């Protein structure tokens, strides 16, 4: 058998807010919320001082303001955050070429073999975190484990500015007391389904046999069975191909469905432009996303026989998907998004049907 992988998950601590506090000393030690003010805005990031009041990313800015009236709101500066992210990734690249970025502030690294000759994955993580601190004046946390999902859980264990190791022999004991919601893919709905079976921890999930889980949840049951035992064979993918491109926008005021046409056309153009940069790959599936005034999220998608070949086709499909929304006419919407998904190389796509049959 191949030796266990050595995976490190590095996660910058309160990244956007920490960059703001680094660059403006007057913000240090204060509750900082990275967001535009306004009824339609959401929180991009919150400093640890703001998190003590319950402020979290993706929260409506108005709610954040109520939870922490003394919070200092700072508009996001993504160009600056991307520049720092490039610095951090350059540090990663000194140790391994197997880097899988998840976002600007976190990535998986496979350091089973590392470039610097350090004796352990723990030493690699320590060296990376020290370099980040020295070169960017920011802190990062790390999780070290035999696979990706365990490393990601571990990186939260000693936040901020810490690291935690899950050794192969410790996996089962580490997972057993954790709530099932810690497992990747287990959201609130699945948590509730498992709770009806008396399953609230990973240890309790592990006690249920594979056949029972498959009978109740199909192929997902097998995945749950594997995760409960710490099994995850997904490798670190250093060049992950694009699977979806999308664009979305929050309206200044809530709109009825029929008044979203202009936004759909504009966002489809953005998504189509992004998809066109993929060269020899095309998106097969058109996706429409809507968020109601009460924050309910709806998605509709369609995969035509042949991938869309023009912006006009994408717009037509997105508008057709809109007709599949069956909420009452009085419903108002705060956000719309259009995307292209299910990307494939052109040589993997089915041939285009003949325009004129012989």
From TrEMBL:
Record localization: Cytoplasm
Positions with a binding annotation for Mg(2+): 11, 105
Catalytically driven reaction(s): DNA(n) + a 2'-deoxyribonucleoside 5'-triphosphate = DNA(n+1) + diphosphate
SUPFAM superfamilies found in the cross-reference section: DNA/RNA polymerases, Lesion bypass DNA polymerase (Y-family), little finger domain
GO CC list: cytosol
InterPro entries: DNA/RNA_pol_sf, DNA_pol_Y-fam_lit_finger_sf, DNA_pol_Y-fam_little_finger, DNA_polymerase-Y, DNApol_IV, IMS_HHH_1, Rev_trsase/Diguanyl_cyclase, UmuC
GO molecular function: damaged DNA binding; DNA-directed DNA polymerase activity; magnesium ion binding
Cofactor(s) needed by this chain: Mg(2+)
The protein's role, per its UniProt record: Poorly processive, error-prone DNA polymerase involved in untargeted mutagenesis. Copies undamaged DNA at stalled replication forks, which arise in vivo from mismatched or misaligned primer ends. These misaligned primers can be extended by PolIV. Exhibits no 3'-5' exonuclease (proofreading) activity. May be involved in translesional synthesis, in conjunction with the beta clamp from PolIII.
UniProt record similarity statement: Belongs to the DNA polymerase type-Y family.
Name of the molecule in the record: DNA polymerase IV
Organism of this sequence: Arenimonas metalli CF5-1
